[in-house]
Design brief:
alpha/beta, six-stranded mixed β-sheet
């Protein structure tokens, strides 16, 4: 079965390819020469994932998976949340966004730095109704950036039960606990349960 994973984020694409069974051919927007950017006008991760999945499903005419994910920091009332990828403005890089979070939490004590990553997947074109799954990983924000693996906020996110940031973990270590891994696993379980793959 050919499945479009509707993202340009190479980190996300590789996670899907690593986890999905090899018999499912994962295609990307660039594989299909689709370069339309869908504006994320939803107010929740679920709404944004659905918006993207529906639009790219129409453009590709194949089963489409969209994922919306982000970091929610308790002290910042859930920020950056659905704006994680464009926190602080479109012109900022991943590094700039990480620095912005560290700056906002500069005087915040360890016991108030709780955060969680959330991943919401929406699949359109697999069955009549959209399919949703979600995954979470709880942790807290480190005082400094550490590690070169991963992407996004990984250099400042320390999962519960770990001493190191997600960016210091190997791909295998991160895959075992990642919010996206949990969400993809749940999604796969639904596809298998309903004999779609």
């Amino acid at each position: 079965m050919k499945i479009l994973v509707a993202t340009t984020n190479l980190g996300k694409i590789n996670e899907f390819k690593d986890i999905f069974p090899k018999k499912s051919k994962i295609l990307t927007l660039s594989d299909l020469s689709i370069n339309k950017d869908i504006e994320e006008t939803g107010k929740t991760f679920h709404q944004n994932a659905l918006l993207k999945a529906m639009e790219y499903n129409k453009l590709s005419n194949m089963p489409t998976i969209s994922e919306d994910s982000g970091l929610e920091i308790s002290y910042l009332n859930g920020e950056p949340g659905i704006y994680s990828a464009r926190y602080g403005g479109e012109s900022l890089s991943d590094q700039d966004r990480v620095d912005l979070v560290l700056e906002k939490l500069s005087d915040v004590p360890d016991d108030r730095r709780q955060a969680r990553f959330i991943s919401v997947i929406c699949g359109v074109g697999f069955k009549y109704e959209p399919i949703y799954s979600e995954g979470y990983i709880d942790g807290y924000i480190a005082k400094n950036k550490e590690g070169n693996n991963g992407f996004g906020y990984d250099p400042i996110f320390i999962p519960v039960g770990s001493e190191k940031t997600a960016a210091k973990m190997t791909k295998e270590e991160k895959n075992m606990i990642s919010h996206r891994r949990k969400s993809i696993d749940k999604f796969l379980k639904i596809l298998r349960r309903d004999k779609i793959i």
